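Reviewers of the previous submission asked for a worked example of the structure-prediction workflow described in the proposal, so we include one complete record here. The input consisted solely of the amino acid sequence. No template or homolog information was supplied to the procedure at any stage.
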Amino acid sequence: MNQKQLLRPVADAAALAAPLANYNTADAVEFLNTLELTRAAETLAALPLPRAVKMLEAPELHRSGELVAALPPARAAALLGLMADDRATDIVHELDEDERARLIPLLGTDARQAIQKLLSYPPNTAGALMTTEYVAVPASWTVAQTLQHIRQVERTRETVYAIYVLEPASQQLQQVVTMRRLITGLPEESIL
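From that input alone, the workflow returned the following structure tokens.
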């Protein structure tokens, strides 16, 4: 089946997405797992992007790579580009070389670079498993500067609970500071 045949006309999008309307993400993923691949891909394609991203990011979703491969390239790239880089990379790892070659050039620059970097690490190593979406700040910053920075970048970071404090000149890790430490610290105090 070619990709034009895979997806129903837009008029059917609401009908495809309707069964998931009242499901939380976990239940929606469970429902999607029960569908045969073509129907699951059609349903995923019919969902609004934020909802589809949440479902693809769920570790309980089976056949993530197959589902992404079954989507039209532009839709697949849009979903991968909105996902956390490490989870998107997990899915790209599941794709065959032809699918990777088809999708990676369609990603936005930031997502493409992050995914390519994570793909460069050998499978099952720390580098391949970690996220590149963390908060790092110079050791010279105060609690207030750090909290302001977190407010500015939090939507682009997978985790903000641990803040990596780097030596400004060498960029070497000096310490990891918890969000609790920041919340309880005085604004003018040093991050360390």
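Residues 146 and 152 are 10 Å apart (CA to CA). We consider this example representative of the routine output the project will generate in years two and three.
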